[in-house]
Predict the structure.
Amino acid sequence: MTDTLEIACADCGHTAPFSPAQLACTQCGSERLEAQYDYEAIARDLPLTLSQRPTGFWRYRELLPLRDPAHIASLGEGNTPLVQVTNLGLMLGRPNLFIKDERQNPTGSFKDRQAALAVSVMKEAGITEAVVASTGNVAISYAAYCARAGIKIYAFLTSLVPPEKMRECALYGAQVIKVTTTYDKSKEMAQAFAQQRGMYYDHGLRSIASVESMKTLAYEVAEQVARQLPLHPQSNGSHPALWRAPDWYIQSVSGGLGPIGAMKGFRELHQMGLIDRLPKLACIQTDGCAPMVTAFKKGLAAPEVVAAPRTRIGTLATGNPGRAYTLLKQWIDEHGGAMESVSDEEAFRAMHVMAKMEGCSMEPAAAVAFAGLFKLVSQGLIQPDDVVVINCSGHTFPVQSEVLGEGWAREMSTPIEAPAAQPQPEGVLAALERLDERVRSVAIVDDTPDAVRLLRRILQSKGDYQIYEAHDGRTGLELIRERHPDLVILDLMMPEVDGFAVLDALRADEATRDIPVIVVTAKLLTAAERDRLNGQIETLLQKGTFMDDELMDDILKALE
């Protein structure tokens, strides 16, 4: 794998050979240790080497702290898709939005990267028993990979962890220890337990293997973005970079391991000349546990510790992130970015948006990153042409009850059996007709297929609407006059008969003049054009600047 790995102290510069058990510098006692490689030699050989290798986590093995591939404990992690999200891009006016879909890892979260490398390193070091503290996903990943490697794992889980996740850990053979306390306290208990029994304790951010594992996120993203978008020319104008970094990398943050590792990966790629610039970083936390965000907005050098987290998203309830905040703040100060927090409700809303608009179901902790994206766009921090990658860090099973609320399913019943001689007043067809009752109809008149698809999907996801579509003004007028819908959603910029002409014709016809109209347009209106619409429409929405709830609020008001 690699014979060039050394551990360097970030404070005093002392270097030493890598050891998985080493947590502090032997010279000054600092815990700021970092793996270093022969980047010049690796950069010289890597492009040709990678062209001959399959995709996946271990594709980048020269840059990972494992010496012998015989010790690899793999379940097929890594090589997760980078998916462009077109509907969301249309809603936000940001066409270059991409999801790094970490749900596709073996146990459904990006923590499988951490477990794959950390457990392999344990195996190489001869460790047979280990202890880990977790808010859920780490424990599941470690339990699965330890089963693969033949290592006994003790998992300390707080009572906030859903029972289903605890049972999954136990299914893999982990010894689950449920503790009724905060995550930070559970880490202290787990470490004390390991010390008492002479077991290896995984320190997360202080573990070289854990940090190094997350670099693979950056490596994959840079390769994938380069395949989907044109490359930037190098800043010196000589040769194009081999890969491409996004303009923004966004992730929800608890302890900070993921973005710290990913940023180290981007830094290494830049050092080796494989990318020509570094991304801005956005770290998103929950309002009920935002020690980094609170400190960042106050300009503090250390996090504001949250002793008692108040969030229903227990996966992100790390009240004391320690030095992780310092490292992430340093990156943002030097390369740009933001720290922002969102409410639990905003995260749950983002879950709905992503599931219904993009077919992407995620856990609340992952949805926090997307809720943060919405905020950053509304604040104008992310520009329309920016390439943005959001880490969709984990899948949601089961779905939390507060996410769906009441009325998420409808019942349909039919008689089990009826005597042949008697007619059946109710049957399958009648039940289906009743299930498909539509009490409101909406006509969409827009010549842009992507916009029509997005508007249709928003309506479909929010209720039972009869939807009519027309792709030019002339056909739209004929459709409205024939169907007489309850509401018209109208674009202004269409060839031949534009939206203004459609609106004038509707208002001049006694049969259609009272149909409410919502204008959704990409056109930047002049004062005269706004005056022309005044009193003629219910509301005006700018394409690329509205969310689905805003449109639905206006629709419901118009239908009252």
